[in-house]
């Protein structure tokens, strides 16, 4: 199944996403987020192609909330979860940091994940129990640092509560931070060792479904700011993560002490 999904994602991204990069008009959804023709066409193509691999419901970002909940309720025995373009703001602005994300869940548990960056032609993938890879190379590509003060952190400030955001801005425990604007790729960069640690104040199901599995299968650790990752609200979860179990403990403990 994994190879079939990778082939479908690459083909659809190269057909629907890449040709529209720097050329697409955009509009705004009711929540203020950007939306493009590439988002809708990519999701439609995935909704058509994925059931040919496994004929189960598809839950996508560009569906109405009611359709998303209906797909979740109907997908207990198998479900596709897709983000047609994560990082639409980057896509519209010409910033080459966005991805197509597809996950397969069974009984609510992540079983397969694919995140494809069509500009870099980087295909991150994982299947439960079989490790994680980038273009066929096992992840992580680089061993994370061992000291928190030397870490490169992926940090999404705007969804972190004000007190913790202030601590991170004024007295960060790490060496440097990045925020590139595409959660699905942030997971993969952490799994690859490009980020040593990661924190995000709130992600939707399609933001984490594939990436969380890729990190897990790369040997990483994850939690939410409030505790266990998988007992948090499925529709929006905060993230604390690292590809290194040892560094994860240090990072989580610092966040707890800082009032997370």
Chain oligomer state: single chain
Taking the sheet with the most strands, its summary is: 7 strands, mixed
The stretches of 5 or more residues where confidence is low (pLDDT under 50) are: none
Structural class determined from secondary elements: alpha+beta
The radius of gyration over CA amounts to: 17 Å
Q: Helical segment tally?
A: 8
For the record, give the distance between the C-alpha atoms at the N and C termini, rounded to a whole number. 39 Å
| Total beta strands | 14
Average pLDDT for all residues: 92
Structural account:
With 260 residues, the protein is an alpha+beta fold. The protein is built from eight helices and 14 strands. α1 (2-17) runs antiparallel to α2. The termini are far apart.
